[in-house]
Amino acid sequence: EPHFFQYGAPLLAKYKVPATSFVIGADGEALNKMKTYATPYLEYESHSFDMHRAGGTVGHGGRISAMSHQEIVDDLKQSEQVTGSLQAFAYPFGDTTPDAIEAVKETGTLAAFTTQYGWADVGADPMNLPRVRIQGTGSLDTFIAAIQLIQRVDEGRLWPLTVLSLRLSAPSSEGSFNAMTYTSTRLSRCTSGCAY
What is the pTM of this model? Predict the structure, then answer.
């Protein structure tokens, strides 16, 4: 997502907003992007190595539903070689199957995200989490209200995860951003009384 890296990463660093970019490992530019746009506020996790393509029969038709359990595990381990981490995973196209969920668990992944819209509640299945999206089409006040709600939730440790999707592209003449999807996730570092 060239505009995310070009515009989003510097904004996250400027405003000290921690985020996670889900990387497709087979992207020949993945390592270069991760190095070029590295900041203390941007972590990289898996969006698979090579599963982000058609070929399945579930949901949006991503190939994860046509893969064996072992093929999914192998793909995620290969992705980990690129990202250096496998704490979180974003299902390609948001597609899941019971076998895919078990394969993701087997890799030791802590949280996996679908494209289902919603908040991640305490007790939710960490391998099948929804996301809250901010599309970039609302007003600045709407965006600020959403961010403040996320901050209140995080500060209150009501949920172990803060999840946000932004849509960014080149700034318009008015300085606004829109048009490209980017997912941000932060695993809260809850130290006591955490219900996961």
Answer: 0.72
